[in-house]
Amino acid sequence: MARSKEFEESVVLDKAMRLFWEQGYEKTSMTELVNHMGIHRKSLYDTFGDKHTLYLKTVDLYDHQMSSALATGVEHSQTATKALQFIFSSLIHGEESPASGCFIVNSTVELAARDDDMNNRSIEMFANTEKLIKDIMVWGQQEGEFTTEYNAEVLAEYLHNVSIGLRGMAKTSMTKEKLLRIAMLSMDLIRR
Description:
The chain is mainly alpha-helical. The protein contains nine helices and no strands. Helix 4 runs parallel beside helix 7. The model has no long low-confidence stretch (mean pLDDT 91).
């Protein structure tokens, strides 16, 4: 008879995500993962596969959490300007571990150039975020909040690039005030 799991998959996956987020892929050993997750090595392999597969699952988990939080915040925004402010504020203030920066940006910088799986995930995740921003741009242009001098797609590409820069800078000891100034200037540039 098969033995039942003595752990909740989502809980231990979250623990692995936090360790990878803090240390990065290369610096995190299987022994550290086993200890941090509180499961046996065999259970880790049986449930999540190898370290690389586990890492990709943690990236997917983080993406799902962030995407859901951003989409919900945008849905509840009364204007496109408020929706964009929510996104920037979430990127600057929303990280549970500000010194670690954004897990997706960290993963992209660390692995995308030499790992096709991470590269493909990064491209897809960035495209999804850009689509969310583009939808906000279209909304704002239709309501007269944002400039129509550029099409919504171009504005979304620009603002997404700013957001990636902000998420990278959040990994440093840069003040949140400076990051907010950068975000607010970017918003001023797209206003009508």
